[in-house]
Amino acid sequence: MTEICKISDLSIGYSSVKAIISDINLSVKKNCLISLIGPNGCGKSTLIKSLCGLHPLLDGEISINGKSINKYSSKELSMLLSFVLSEKIDSGKLTVYDIISIGRHNYSNWWGTLDDGDKQIIERVLKIMNLESLANRFYFELSDGERQRVMIAKSLAQDTPIIILDEPTSHLDLPNRIDIFRLLKEIVSQENKSIILSTHELDLALTYSDKLWIINTQSKIQECSPNDPNMNLILQECFKLNNFQFKTSL
Protein backbone atom coordinates (compact mmCIF):
# COMPACT_ATOMS: atom_id res chain seq x y z
CA MET A 1 0.00 0.00 0.00
CA THR A 2 1.15 3.55 -0.78
CA GLU A 3 2.23 5.77 2.10
CA ILE A 4 0.06 8.87 2.45
CA CYS A 5 1.14 10.24 5.84
CA LYS A 6 4.45 10.03 7.69
CA ILE A 7 5.20 10.84 11.33
CA SER A 8 8.89 11.49 11.94
CA ASP A 9 10.71 11.87 15.30
CA LEU A 10 7.56 13.36 16.79
CA SER A 11 7.27 14.51 20.40
CA ILE A 12 3.92 15.66 21.78
CA GLY A 13 2.74 17.16 25.04
CA TYR A 14 2.15 20.43 26.84
CA SER A 15 5.69 21.21 27.96
CA SER A 16 9.04 21.16 26.24
CA VAL A 17 10.54 19.99 29.54
CA LYS A 18 8.77 16.62 29.49
CA ALA A 19 6.88 15.25 26.51
CA ILE A 20 3.94 12.91 26.99
CA ILE A 21 5.16 10.74 24.11
CA SER A 22 8.42 11.17 22.19
CA ASP A 23 10.34 9.64 19.29
CA ILE A 24 7.18 8.69 17.37
CA ASN A 25 7.96 7.26 13.94
CA LEU A 26 4.94 5.89 12.11
CA SER A 27 3.33 5.89 8.68
CA VAL A 28 -0.19 5.72 7.31
CA LYS A 29 -0.88 3.74 4.17
CA LYS A 30 -3.77 4.31 1.78
CA ASN A 31 -6.92 2.29 2.46
CA CYS A 32 -5.93 1.46 6.03
CA LEU A 33 -7.87 1.45 9.31
CA ILE A 34 -5.60 2.20 12.26
CA SER A 35 -6.68 1.97 15.90
CA LEU A 36 -4.74 3.88 18.57
CA ILE A 37 -4.87 2.00 21.88
CA GLY A 38 -3.58 2.75 25.35
CA PRO A 39 -4.60 3.30 28.98
CA ASN A 40 -6.36 6.45 30.18
CA GLY A 41 -4.10 9.49 30.34
CA CYS A 42 -1.43 8.02 28.08
CA GLY A 43 -1.73 10.74 25.42
CA LYS A 44 -4.15 9.30 22.86
CA SER A 45 -6.26 12.46 22.54
CA THR A 46 -3.16 14.66 22.45
CA LEU A 47 -1.75 12.61 19.58
CA ILE A 48 -5.07 12.71 17.75
CA LYS A 49 -5.26 16.50 18.07
CA SER A 50 -1.61 16.81 17.00
CA LEU A 51 -2.32 14.77 13.88
CA CYS A 52 -5.24 17.09 13.09
CA GLY A 53 -3.02 20.16 13.38
CA LEU A 54 -4.97 21.36 16.45
CA HIS A 55 -2.12 20.98 18.93
CA PRO A 56 1.43 22.34 18.51
CA LEU A 57 4.20 19.79 18.17
CA LEU A 58 7.10 19.82 20.62
CA ASP A 59 9.43 18.30 18.06
CA GLY A 60 9.43 16.34 14.83
CA GLU A 61 7.16 16.47 11.83
CA ILE A 62 3.89 15.19 10.41
CA SER A 63 3.75 15.15 6.64
CA ILE A 64 1.02 14.32 4.13
CA ASN A 65 1.98 13.45 0.57
CA GLY A 66 5.58 14.36 1.41
CA LYS A 67 4.79 17.88 2.69
CA SER A 68 4.71 19.03 6.31
CA ILE A 69 1.21 19.83 7.55
CA ASN A 70 2.59 23.16 8.81
CA LYS A 71 3.26 24.19 5.22
CA TYR A 72 -0.32 23.70 4.09
CA SER A 73 -2.85 26.49 4.35
CA SER A 74 -5.90 25.77 6.53
CA LYS A 75 -8.01 25.27 3.42
CA GLU A 76 -5.45 22.98 1.80
CA LEU A 77 -5.16 20.88 4.95
CA SER A 78 -8.95 20.61 5.25
CA MET A 79 -8.98 18.97 1.83
CA LEU A 80 -6.46 16.36 2.99
CA LEU A 81 -7.76 15.40 6.42
CA SER A 82 -11.02 15.65 8.32
CA PHE A 83 -11.68 14.82 11.93
CA VAL A 84 -14.36 14.02 14.47
CA LEU A 85 -13.43 14.89 18.05
CA SER A 86 -15.10 13.50 21.15
CA GLU A 87 -16.54 16.84 22.30
CA LYS A 88 -20.26 17.25 21.74
CA ILE A 89 -21.29 20.10 19.45
CA ASP A 90 -23.93 22.80 19.98
CA SER A 91 -26.03 22.20 16.88
CA GLY A 92 -28.83 24.68 17.54
CA LYS A 93 -31.61 23.86 15.11
CA LEU A 94 -29.42 22.40 12.39
CA THR A 95 -30.78 19.36 10.61
CA VAL A 96 -28.81 16.25 9.72
CA TYR A 97 -28.58 17.53 6.13
CA ASP A 98 -27.32 20.93 7.34
CA ILE A 99 -24.50 19.40 9.40
CA ILE A 100 -23.37 17.05 6.64
CA SER A 101 -23.40 19.93 4.15
CA ILE A 102 -20.85 21.77 6.32
CA GLY A 103 -18.34 19.22 5.02
CA ARG A 104 -18.74 20.77 1.55
CA HIS A 105 -18.07 24.38 2.55
CA ASN A 106 -14.45 24.41 1.41
CA TYR A 107 -15.61 23.43 -2.06
CA SER A 108 -18.49 25.93 -2.30
CA ASN A 109 -18.46 29.56 -3.44
CA TRP A 110 -18.10 32.72 -1.36
CA TRP A 111 -21.72 32.51 -0.20
CA GLY A 112 -21.49 28.84 0.70
CA THR A 113 -23.96 27.83 -1.97
CA LEU A 114 -24.07 24.11 -2.73
CA ASP A 115 -24.01 23.19 -6.40
CA ASP A 116 -25.47 20.04 -7.94
CA GLY A 117 -22.20 18.18 -7.44
CA ASP A 118 -22.14 19.02 -3.73
CA LYS A 119 -25.76 17.90 -3.34
CA GLN A 120 -25.03 14.61 -5.10
CA ILE A 121 -22.13 13.95 -2.72
CA ILE A 122 -24.30 14.70 0.31
CA GLU A 123 -27.07 12.42 -0.94
CA ARG A 124 -24.54 9.65 -1.52
CA VAL A 125 -23.07 10.09 1.96
CA LEU A 126 -26.57 9.96 3.49
CA LYS A 127 -27.06 6.61 1.75
CA ILE A 128 -23.67 5.21 2.78
CA MET A 129 -24.28 6.10 6.43
CA ASN A 130 -27.91 4.94 6.36
CA LEU A 131 -29.17 8.42 7.25
CA GLU A 132 -31.56 9.08 4.38
CA SER A 133 -34.66 8.82 6.57
CA LEU A 134 -33.12 11.24 9.10
CA ALA A 135 -31.95 13.94 6.67
CA ASN A 136 -34.56 16.50 7.77
CA ARG A 137 -34.49 15.67 11.47
CA PHE A 138 -32.88 18.09 13.91
CA TYR A 139 -29.51 16.87 15.12
CA PHE A 140 -30.42 17.39 18.78
CA GLU A 141 -33.31 14.95 18.39
CA LEU A 142 -31.06 12.03 17.49
CA SER A 143 -29.71 9.21 19.60
CA ASP A 144 -25.99 9.12 20.43
CA GLY A 145 -25.39 6.44 17.80
CA GLU A 146 -27.21 8.44 15.13
CA ARG A 147 -25.31 11.61 16.05
CA GLN A 148 -21.98 9.81 15.69
CA ARG A 149 -22.97 8.55 12.23
CA VAL A 150 -23.88 12.13 11.26
CA MET A 151 -20.49 13.46 12.33
CA ILE A 152 -18.70 10.70 10.43
CA ALA A 153 -20.92 11.51 7.44
CA LYS A 154 -19.84 15.17 7.63
CA SER A 155 -16.19 14.10 7.47
CA LEU A 156 -16.98 11.74 4.59
CA ALA A 157 -18.70 14.58 2.70
CA GLN A 158 -15.50 16.61 3.17
CA ASP A 159 -13.94 14.05 0.82
CA THR A 160 -10.48 13.87 2.36
CA PRO A 161 -8.10 10.93 1.94
CA ILE A 162 -7.56 10.81 5.74
CA ILE A 163 -10.24 10.78 8.45
CA ILE A 164 -9.26 11.02 12.12
CA LEU A 165 -11.60 10.18 14.99
CA ASP A 166 -11.18 10.55 18.75
CA GLU A 167 -13.09 7.84 20.68
CA PRO A 168 -15.88 7.47 18.08
CA THR A 169 -17.67 4.79 20.10
CA SER A 170 -17.61 6.41 23.54
CA HIS A 171 -21.05 6.63 25.20
CA LEU A 172 -22.51 4.11 22.72
CA ASP A 173 -24.07 0.75 23.54
CA LEU A 174 -22.57 -2.46 22.15
CA PRO A 175 -24.71 -2.73 18.97
CA ASN A 176 -23.87 0.86 18.02
CA ARG A 177 -20.18 0.37 18.79
CA ILE A 178 -20.07 -2.63 16.47
CA ASP A 179 -22.06 -0.74 13.83
CA ILE A 180 -19.62 2.20 13.86
CA PHE A 181 -16.58 -0.06 13.43
CA ARG A 182 -18.27 -1.94 10.59
CA LEU A 183 -19.14 1.32 8.85
CA LEU A 184 -15.58 2.61 9.22
CA LYS A 185 -14.19 -0.62 7.77
CA GLU A 186 -16.55 -0.32 4.80
CA ILE A 187 -15.53 3.32 4.27
CA VAL A 188 -11.86 2.32 4.16
CA SER A 189 -12.41 -0.48 1.65
CA GLN A 190 -15.14 1.04 -0.51
CA GLU A 191 -14.40 4.77 -0.38
CA ASN A 192 -10.59 4.58 -0.54
CA LYS A 193 -10.03 6.35 2.77
CA SER A 194 -7.43 5.97 5.50
CA ILE A 195 -8.87 6.20 9.01
CA ILE A 196 -7.05 6.74 12.30
CA LEU A 197 -9.08 6.42 15.49
CA SER A 198 -8.42 6.26 19.20
CA THR A 199 -10.40 3.68 21.12
CA HIS A 200 -10.76 1.59 24.26
CA GLU A 201 -12.62 -1.12 22.34
CA LEU A 202 -9.91 -3.79 22.24
CA ASP A 203 -12.14 -6.50 20.79
CA LEU A 204 -13.45 -4.30 17.98
CA ALA A 205 -10.02 -2.82 17.23
CA LEU A 206 -8.50 -6.28 16.90
CA THR A 207 -11.39 -7.46 14.72
CA TYR A 208 -11.67 -4.56 12.27
CA SER A 209 -8.32 -2.73 12.20
CA ASP A 210 -5.55 -3.22 9.66
CA LYS A 211 -2.94 -1.83 12.06
CA LEU A 212 -2.73 -1.02 15.74
CA TRP A 213 -0.76 1.79 17.34
CA ILE A 214 -0.31 0.75 20.97
CA ILE A 215 1.04 3.11 23.63
CA ASN A 216 2.88 1.14 26.30
CA THR A 217 3.73 1.92 29.91
CA GLN A 218 7.02 3.55 28.83
CA SER A 219 5.06 6.12 26.76
CA LYS A 220 6.31 4.62 23.52
CA ILE A 221 4.16 3.73 20.53
CA GLN A 222 4.43 0.29 18.99
CA GLU A 223 2.85 -0.48 15.61
CA CYS A 224 1.67 -4.04 15.11
CA SER A 225 -0.80 -6.19 13.24
CA PRO A 226 -3.99 -7.37 15.01
CA ASN A 227 -2.94 -10.97 14.37
CA ASP A 228 0.52 -10.51 15.90
CA PRO A 229 1.31 -13.80 17.72
CA ASN A 230 2.61 -11.77 20.67
CA MET A 231 -0.55 -9.68 21.02
CA ASN A 232 -1.41 -10.92 24.52
CA LEU A 233 2.06 -10.00 25.77
CA ILE A 234 1.85 -6.60 24.07
CA LEU A 235 -1.49 -5.87 25.73
CA GLN A 236 -0.18 -7.09 29.08
CA GLU A 237 2.59 -4.51 28.89
CA CYS A 238 0.25 -1.79 27.64
CA PHE A 239 -2.31 -2.17 30.42
CA LYS A 240 -0.09 -3.62 33.18
CA LEU A 241 -1.98 -6.90 33.27
CA ASN A 242 -0.68 -10.25 34.47
CA ASN A 243 -1.47 -13.55 32.73
CA PHE A 244 -3.76 -11.74 30.29
CA GLN A 245 -5.26 -13.81 27.46
CA PHE A 246 -7.39 -11.90 24.99
CA LYS A 247 -9.85 -13.66 22.70
CA THR A 248 -12.48 -12.28 20.34
CA SER A 249 -15.39 -14.12 18.82
CA LEU A 250 -16.74 -11.29 16.67
Could you please describe the fold and organization of this structure?
The chain is α/β, with parallel strands linked by helices and 250 residues long. 32% of the residues lie in helices and 22% in strands. The chain contains eight helices and ten strands. The chain has helices at residues 44-51, 74-78, 96-102, 116-128, 144-157, 174-191, 202-208, 231-239; strands at residues 3-12, 21-29, 33-37, 59-64, 67-68, 81-84, 162-166, 194-198, 211-215, 221-224. The strands form two sheets. The chain has a six-stranded mixed sheet, sandwiched between helices. The protein has a four-stranded antiparallel sheet with strand order 2-1-4-5, with helices on one face. It is globular and about 50 Å long. The two termini are 26 Å apart.
Please tag this protein with its features.
6-stranded mixed beta sheet; globular
State the share of residues found in helices, binned by percent. 25-40%
Q: What structural class is derived from the secondary structure elements?
A: alpha/beta
Low-confidence stretches: none
Radius of gyration over C-alpha positions, nearest whole angstrom: 18 Å
Summarize this structure briefly.
This protein is of the alpha/beta class and 250 residues long. It is 32% helix and 22% strand.
Topology (SSEs and partners):
Layout: E1 3-12, E2 21-29, E3 33-37, H1 44-51, E4 59-64, E5 67-68, H2 74-78, E6 81-84, H3 96-102, H4 116-128, H5 144-157, E7 162-166, H6 174-191, E8 194-198, H7 202-208, E9 211-215, E10 221-224, H8 231-239
Parallel strand pairs: 3-8, 3-9, 6-7, 7-8
Antiparallel strand pairs: 1-2, 1-4, 4-5, 9-10
Helix pairs in contact: 3-5, 4-5
